[in-house]
Amino acid sequence: MKFSLITTTLVLLTVGSALPAPADNAPYACHKTCGEMILDSRKCASGNSWNRDCLCDPGTPFFDALDPCLQCGAALWNDYGSYLEPPLAFCGFPTKPY
User: Fold this and answer.
1) Residue 87 domain boundaries
2) What is the 3-state secondary structure (H, E, C) of the chain?
3) Where does the secretion signal sit in this chain (predicted)?
């Protein structure tokens, strides 16, 4: 009996760890928009900071993607947030999805 219980527990733990991680529910367009914001922030990087005109001004790609990304980004913020929060804060924009 003791062997069966230990074996069953080990099998359940193995099966549980082999299951795929749950997929986020963010659509591809959200990944694209927020991912491009990360790339745009890097294009506007200047040393350890950013070029405000390049990053924060209306009409820039980063600014134009702000609302779409923050509206859809809650499901992927664990992966994207650490890359977006610093440039968002630099511009004085919200740093969390709506």
Assistant:
1) 26-91
2) CHHHHHHHHHHHHHHHHHCCCCCCCCCHHHHHHHHHHHHHHHHCEECCEECHHHHCCCCCHHHHHHHHHHHHHHHHHHHHHHHHHHHHHHHCCCCCCC
3) 1-18
The answer as to whether 45 is a domain residue is: yes
Residue 3 falls inside a structural domain = no
Tokens of residue 89, six digits: 């804060």
Q: What is the mean pLDDT of each run of 10 residues along the chain (98 residues)?
A: 48 41 75 98 94 97 98 95 98 97
pLDDT value of residue 5: 47
Task: Kindly report the backbone phi and psi dihedral angles of residue 45, in degrees, each rounded to the nearest multiple of 5, phi listed first.
Answer: -70, 140
Residue 98 lies in a domain: no
Total tally of structural domains belonging to the chain: 1
**Total count of residues recorded for the chain:** 98
Entry pTM:
0.74
